[in-house]
Amino acid sequence: MPQEVYIWQKKWNQYLQPAIEQTTPYVIGWRFLAGEFEPDGQVIYPSIQFDHLQQTNLPLTAVYRFDRLRPLPSVDEVLTLIQQSPAYQIHHIHRIELDLDWPTPKLSLYIQLLRSLKAKLPKDVRLNITMIPDWMRSPVFPELTEQVPYPVLQVHSVDNPHIGLFNNNTALMYIQKMNRLTRHPFYVALPTYGLKIQTTPSGTIYAIEGENDFKTGKSGQELYSNPQQVRALIEQLQHNTPINLRGIIWFRLPIASDQRNWSLDTWMAMIKHQNLHGQIMVKEIPDPNTPEAIKITLVNQGNIALPLPSIVSLRCKTADGLFPYQLSVNHQGKYILNLTKQIAPLNTHQERVIGWMRCD
Questions:
Q1: Is there a single domain that holds both residue 43 and residue 169?
Q2: Which is nearest to 211 in space by CA: 38, 73, 15?
Q3: Do 350 and 228 sit in the same domain of this protein?
Q4: What CA–CA distance (Å, rounded) separates 224 from 7?
Q5: Which residues contact 38 (CB under 8 A, 6 or more apart)?
Q6: Is 302 found in the same domain as 160?
Q7: Residues 160, 58: Cα–Cα separation, whole Å
Q8: Do 193 and 332 belong together in one domain?
Q9: CA 56 to CA 60: how far, in whole Å?
Q10: Residue 166 is inside which H or E element, if any?
Q11: Which of 3, 101, 170, 354 satisfies CB 3.0 to 4.6 Å to 325 for a cystine?
Q12: Which domain holds residue 313?
């Protein structure tokens, strides 16, 4: 199945080029964040290194995003965001995708906006949009899909923390429903990333973090995209491909500095269709700074990120845990380190010291 990938960094760094080079043989195009309207009305145009992308000789699509927390944009606001971007103005990239979290009851207005936008843009511009599953409740949804050549259905979301970012069975249901509701070709966007969220006591999300930690430090809930669930969906789609599904677009390209994303090992195994395997080993490492003390260290020796083990057994009684572990005694009287809170999974080739012990 054809694959493309989103590059979503607002500030490009030295880690992007090697990731692009490794990925190039396995994808048929790049989609990159070209401009964004933030909640406060500020416009951001990422510092894109276009030469890295153009050297791959793959098609480029510029994506323009309007944050969900700001008012619905006008045609002129969308047009201005596009036309003033370096991607459009300097590099003449006329494959354009809009990422707007439009409310479902107002999709008729979105259809009007798209028609007006197409009338004002040059004829050689190919306009596409991303779609969310909730829009399929609308009676005008089939009409909306007809406005663009290849809409992109996003099957990942942070709307319900109890479900997580992604569930392969739910995603398959959405894809099949999209296939039934329209005879129009479409792509599906699959996740690679993780997030940390803050919620109110009632469960309402009020803050979302990607690569960076909250100022509050250890609080918040970690959500991540399970690569094995994503692989399960791909296998289901390959076995029985919906007639209108044209391919996969990955969100987002993993790079070495992105702490809430798959590792490059996981990413390459996924796009090359290699086996996914994970194994967390517990290692005892002498502490050079403390005589006779041993650091209890978790090491991921597989090619996928794994959740931290809930219990780690100890062979010595003098010990203590480090966040998110605490020292406990099980029902057999054995000393253990007990996981108190599931945080970000342990990535490939990553180590985490979770406690110490001293064997007297």
A1: yes
A2: 15
A3: no
A4: 18
A5: 44, 67, 70
A6: no
A7: 36
A8: no
A9: 10
A10: none
A11: 354
A12: 280-358
**How many whole angstroms separate alpha carbon 360 and alpha carbon 354?**
20
Specify the 3-state DSSP secondary structure of 85.
Answer: coil
Task: Give residue 347's identity as a one-letter amino acid code.
Answer: N
Residues 293 and 167 reside in one and the same domain? no
pLDDT category of residue 18 using cuts at 50, 70 and 90: very high
The CATH number of whichever domain residue 208 belongs to comes to 3.20.20.80
Q: Specify the pTM.
A: 0.90
* pLDDT tens column, 32-60: 999 999 888 899 999 999 999 999 999 99
Output DSSP code: residue 190. Answer: E
- In the numeric block, the tokens 């993993």 are attached to 254
State the total domains in the chain: 2
Within this chain, do residues 184 and 64 fall inside the same structural domain, yes or no? yes
Q: What angle do CA 288, 289, 292 make, to 5 degrees?
A: 70
- CA separation for the pair 6, 62 (Å, rounded): 10
Tokens of 348: 């490939």
Distance CA 339, CA 62 (A): 43
